[in-house]
Amino acid sequence: xxxxxxxxxxxxxxxxxxxxxxxxxxxxxxxxxxxxxxxxxxxxxxxxxxxxxxxxxxxxxxxxxxxxxxxxxxxxxxxxxxxxxxxxxxxxxxxxxxxxxxxxxxxxxxxxxxxxxxxxxxxxxxxxxxxxxxxxxxxxxxxxxxxxxxxxxxxxxxxxxxxxxxxxxxxxxxxxxxxxxxxxxxxxxxxxxxxxxxxxxxxxxxxxxxxxxxxxxxxxxxxxxxxxxxxxxxxxxxxxxxxxxxxxxxxxx
Length: 253
Known about the structure:
Elements: H1 3-13, H2 21-28, H3 34-49, H4 52-60, H5 66-79, H6 85-93, H7 98-101, H8 106-116, H9 130-145, H10 148-166, H11 168-174, H12 186-208, H13 212-252
Helix pairs in contact: 1-10, 2-11, 3-8, 3-9, 3-13, 4-5, 5-12, 9-10, 9-13, 10-12, 10-13
């Protein structure tokens, strides 16, 4: 990996989106009501997670080199619930059973988690919070209208590169609940195997980092994606600190 790409990887992992107070509070159990916060996250984040295959196919469509497209198509296959034996072995080592995930698309795994937290109302785009809509549409806009390098920077360096880190606080928070591990498998799955997705995107990014323009676009896309996620965490954190307390007061009264 080039020094430039390594530097971007480090920059992304040191970004506020990765070390956000919301994530620290989830990890440490330092929220008014962690279970409420997890259910709130499950409800709102579903509208982002549901579209991940769309994000990936958008980036694939911008790539001209067949080997690059093929590499990301393998990621898309995993998103649909198809894994190799090596991945199953890695997952088994962290307690993920094959039958929980085999053939189950990732958005469906997240929906399983959403329902396990008590969110039983059907998902409807008409009921989405504007904060989520702005995040998703801005992110999709970067992928759709930016250059191939910018799209790669957003999805790779600014998203896949941090996934295995930002989901760890959720794994820790969920370990303190009585939710069934099968219902929360979305998170250990992504902390265990998303490094493969990350590596594929970084290898493709090397091609675009060969020019000054490509380098600038990679970083621009990365910063856009990280900043959007950080803003979403701001909103989720504010809700976790205020809405949970208000909900408990309503129950008491």
